[in-house]
Amino acid sequence: MIDGSGLVPAYARQPVQFVRGAGARLWDVEGVEYLDLQTGLAVNSVGHAHPAVVAAITEQAAQLIHVGNLFHTAPGAALALRLAESSLGGRVHFANSGTEANEAAIKMARKARRGGDVVSVHRGFHGRTYGSLSATPQEAKQAPFAPLVPGFFSVAPTAEALTAAIGDETAAVILEPIQGESGVYVLEDDVLRAAREACDRHGAALIFDEVQVGLGRTGTLWAYEHSGVVPDLLTVAKALGGGLPIGAVVTNDRFAEGFEPGDHGSTFAGGPVPCAAALAVLDVVGDPALLARVRETGERIRHVLAELPAVVEVRGRGFMLAAELDPARAEPATDLVGRALREERLVLNATGPTTLRLLPPLTITDAELDDALARLARLLDPQESR
Asked: What is the pLDDT of residue 385?
């Protein structure tokens, strides 16, 4: 078993070494099988080692791995068109991750406004690089790295607060349609509409951070489709590469010419192998039948979770759900995650002391879901195991 002694301790790693994955299942170094409801934090949305993704990576890697962004490649050009045509219709700028995509979107918005403030909302999470961290109003994440980038402000996630905060000095508003890292909080449609209306009134850019919530996780390809509120800039990453690092900013026509050569760049962004993988991912998650199943099955999961012992609230949409636990009846969620791994071979995630987050692969079978929920029930109610 690898002990990780050579690594900087930036992560609270579980004492498990995974060596193989297939679909919704993982195997550790000792051959023990697990069910995965974490999916690498919403990365493996099409499951582990999806055959189409593996084939796309293998074929492209045998042809061309990297040339940089001073040249064109077919996968990059095709993916840019695919992303734009499926959403905002403008153009695409590639990055390597969600935080980098958000950095690029913020820079586009500020350049268009020649400066200006950036407004976010409480509980938001937009990344850990300095611009995106400055838009992440969480004291524990920001305080150790102060001073942050000036000109970032956060308000309550309400229509009234956003309307009051957005003015002529605002360059951008950045929102997650569903706030993932803070515990899966859905921003109501009136909040999104108020942001859109205020941005239109004052000429600010509306950025939707769909890094975690996009690409079919809620049962539509893009989460903004549920509300009908369309942003100016859309950021995406996590699930896009099927496990390979890739992010993107999708613009509308207003921002399509937002960057000029030299304004922004990244050595590895939009490489042919991750782009080939992303095209295969889009083939899977764009299937209307799969999206319909995510919507319908997500509702079934919600009802099952709501009936589990110690669960007092269920939040989310589709296959992005949180179960809020009664602290008087359940152990801390972080402890429960560890016990789930050891006792039930179930991979879960805790976003706080009382919150379990479930991010199953979109391709998980009904039988696997039922098995996973039964394992969770046994964890929350010892009577279930008798």
From this structure: 47
